[in-house]
Design a protein that fits this description.
The protein is an alpha/beta fold. It is 48% helix and 12% strand. The longest helix is centred in the middle third of the chain and has 50 residues.
Length: 713
């Protein structure tokens, strides 16, 4: 990698060049982002995961530029037109846009008006006009009449010459740069409804006649308009004031005031309308889409992170219910390791109304399987099922929790679910997923494509490849932040551990199935294909409960075990005593243990980890209840203040579940009494809040909410 790129990236991220270089080196050696962030702080000077990912992505972009640079050089060289000066220009270009502007005059062309004019021998006339030395250009043009080549009269000769000039103007590197700058500063995006599509495209009514500055347009509106255009309801155009663009081009190309200059003015008008403006509009659409996509990725990734890191209830005996009316409620019982023990169906709701039988069945299951908590899916019939469960008298305290079941149906029909439960149907699998989500959201949600969880913004309209990459980064980050128990985790969860992947995850599962629980991190090396590189990347994130060495259940990396042993020896203790006794840890002077390999960042992390080895960074589980007596959208009245849970945060506001099987929207203008630029500054996914009902549209199933004048944590 070109070292000058390290300087450039360092400047862009406001960090040092050596930090970029060292990170690039680690990435090139196969190190993962979580590993670098956690265990190579001395090399990067404690860069965080976002900064490391930014370096990785920027390096990929610059590699793509280099690849295109090489291709362009080869193309121009094959044409025999590569001069020393041109080669230097291409070498100095630092963006794809600049490279393409340089290449444009040399790019092989299909038949154009300019190529047709050149075939008629009119390029010399175009050059004469461009010199702007001749006043009576029509007399000169007569010399280019050639009936054999199809030039019959003077106007045909001038028209052909203007076509060539228009192409020159379009391919002029400086002119394109200045016009591009104008587009970026002053272009407006305008949308219009396509005639005859008014009724069919009614959902885009807000954009039937819409105009705003492209630079200031928020991402959600950009994506909405682009979707309307893709669905052929809206027509869009992106242009700055035409008069300003023409004035800029005239200033660049008009050098005299004569007949030749007038021909250039006509060529400028034509070239702008026919070539430059459409080309720049395509560029601006691409840039606007890219910017909107980035914002959507940001929103989606942040929501996904909050969802994956939602507080777990922990290892409990769970009774989970997937609610239903006609087909009944599917009930499953899970043990503390989330193993399915029992399943059946109850019918407490219409049309069967077998309430007494259902109560007796739930009571017997709670007693038989020592149930500690009941998970209820929040889909159709969820509130009614919650009410039914809470009407039952149990012999001990049982908590009943509504669980967001978004994506559960996707999981239950997936290959993963079929592998886990080949002998059960989708309803049983769905209920199991609901119960496991309560126990440990992260462990269960990693089995589902993040795009199916329903926490994104215009997720189907953005670049799917880049979205997948962004979401995978988020899942990997969350999994490695929490850490993974080797002996109880699923293949899917293990696959997201730094350096593991699906094949090695499968090998781990097969090894423990054959040999029993893995007893130490060192034993991982016996797993097929678990080589030294994989061990280096993964070991610190894998936890082994009840291991002989307590560090095997911590985030301390095995490469640092010797340091911990030296610390313990320094205070005449063993590692177990060092973990249990804060006074012993306080005696340690970290400066004494600093070496070239272990600096203060790593040593500080070790001490923090010894305080609570293997601690779960997620918040403690917080019990929540919806308002009693409010079960359907028909129960809502303007002015009501209700508890709710944030289910999705977008650029234009937040969606809130208030327990009526239809999320309401708190528009960004209703999030607080002050101006809000980013909804994430006010609310987070899964946050418990209070909202006021502003309006209810039962027919369109829309609920308007407000958080103004309410106290929300």
């Amino acid at each position: 990698m070109n070292k000058k790129y390290f300087v450039r990236i360092a400047k862009e991220l406001n960090i040092r060049t050596d930090q970029v270089g060292n990170t690039a080196q680690l990435l090139s050696e196969g190190a993962t982002i979580p590993f670098i962030s956690r265990y190579r702080k001395e090399y990067t000077d404690s860069l965080n995961e976002f900064e490391i990912a930014s370096i990785r992505d920027r390096l990929d972009q610059l590699k793509a530029i280099d690849k295109r640079r090489k291709s362009i050089l080869h193309s121009i060289e094959e044409q025999g037109k590569l001069t020393v000066e041109l080669k230097q220009q291409i070498a100095d270009a630092d963006s794809l846009t600049e490279l393409e502007d340089i290449y444009l005059p040399y790019k092989p062309k299909k038949k154009t008006r300019a190529t047709t004019a050149r075939a008629k021998g009119l390029e010399p006339l175009a050059k004469i006009i461009m010199s702007q030395h001749i006043d009576q250009i029509r007399l000169k043009a007569k010399e280019f009449i050639n009936k054999d080549k199809g030039v019959i009269e003077v106007e045909e000769a001038l028209s052909g010459a203007r076509d060539i000039i228009a192409e020159w103007i379009n391919e002029h590197k400086y002119a394109r740069s200045v016009i591009r700058d104008l587009f970026k500063r002053k272009a407006s995006i305008r949308s219009h409804i396509i005639r005859g599509k008014e009724q069919e495209g009614i959902k885009y009514k807000s954009y039937f006649e819409w105009e705003e500055n492209l630079l200031k347009a928020p991402s959600h509106r950009i994506l909405a308009m682009f979707r309307g255009e893709n669905e052929r309801y809206l027509s869009l155009d992106i242009t700055p004031p035409k008069s300003e663009a023409i004035a800029i081009l005239e200033k660049i190309f008009i050098k005299s005031d004569n007949d030749s200059s007038e021909q250039i003015r006509i060529a400028i008008q034509d070239g702008y309308k026919r070539l430059i403006q459409p080309s720049m509009e395509t560029e601006m659409k691409s840039l606007a889409k890219e910017k909107a996509d980035e914002k959507a990725f940001e929103v989606f990734a942040e929501n996904l992170r909050q969802l994956l890191l939602a507080p777990p209830l922990g290892q409990k005996n769970i009774l989970a219910i997937d609610p239903g009316f006609r087909t009944g409620c599917k009930v499953v019982c899970l043990d503390r390791q989330s193993k399915l023990l029992h399943n059946e169906t109850i019918f407490p709701h219409p049309p069967q109304n077998e309430v007494k039988q259902a109560i007796r069945k739930i009571q017997s299951l709670v007693d038989a399987y020592k149930i500690e908590a009941i998970a209820i899916g929040n889909g159709t019939g969820g509130r009614q099922t919650e009410k039914f469960i809470k009407s039952i008298r149990f012999t001990k305290d049982i908590i009943a929790v509504m669980v967001n079941e978004s994506g559960a149906s996707v999981y239950s029909a997936s290959k993963v679910a079929r592998e886990e439960f080949p002998d059960y149907d989708v309803t049983v699998r769905g209920a199991v997923s609901i119960g496991r989500r309560l126990m440990d959201p992260l462990a269960e949600l990693v089995k589902i494509d993040p795009k199916s969880i329903g926490v994104g913004q215009y997720q189907h309209d953005v670049d799917q490849r880049l979205l997948a990459k962004s979401l995978e980064d988020t899942v990997i980050s969350c999994v490695n932040t929490v850490g993974v128990e080797v002996n109880t985790s699923s293949k899917q969860l293990l696959s997201y551990v730094s350096g593991v992947g699906l094949t090695l995850a499968q090998n781990i599962v097969e090894y423990r199935n054959t040999n029993g629980p893995i007893k130490s991190r060192n034993e991982l090396k016996k797993v097929p294909r678990f080589g030294s590189k994989a061990f280096q990347q993964a070991a610190g994130f894998l936890r082994i409960r009840d291991a002989k060495n307590p560090l095997d259940h911590s985030a301390v990396h095995p490469e640092s075990y010797s340091v911990v042993e030296k610390m313990a020896k320094k205070v005449n203790a063993i590692i177990e005593e060092l973990i249990k006794d804060v006074k012993l840890r306080q005696k340690i002077n970290l400066q004494e243990f600093v070496t070239d390999q272990f600096g203060m960042p790593t040593l500080t992390d070790i001490i923090k980890e010894l305080e609570k080895p293997g601690r779960d960074p997620r918040k403690k589980f917080d019990f929540f209840e919806f308002a009693k007596g409010v079960n359907t959208i028909e129960d809502l009245k303007p002015g009501m203040v209700l508890p709710g849970i944030v289910t999705n945060v977008t650029a234009f506001g937040a969606f809130v579940d208030i327990g009526v099987h239809q999320d309401g929207l708190v528009h960004i203008s209703q999030l607080a009494n002050k101006f809000v630029k980013d909804p994430n500054d006010i609310v987070k996914l899964n946050q418990k809040i209070e909202v006021k009902i502003l309006g209810v549209d039962i027919e369109r199933k829309r609920i308007e909410l407000s958080m103004k004048d309410l106290t929300n944590g």
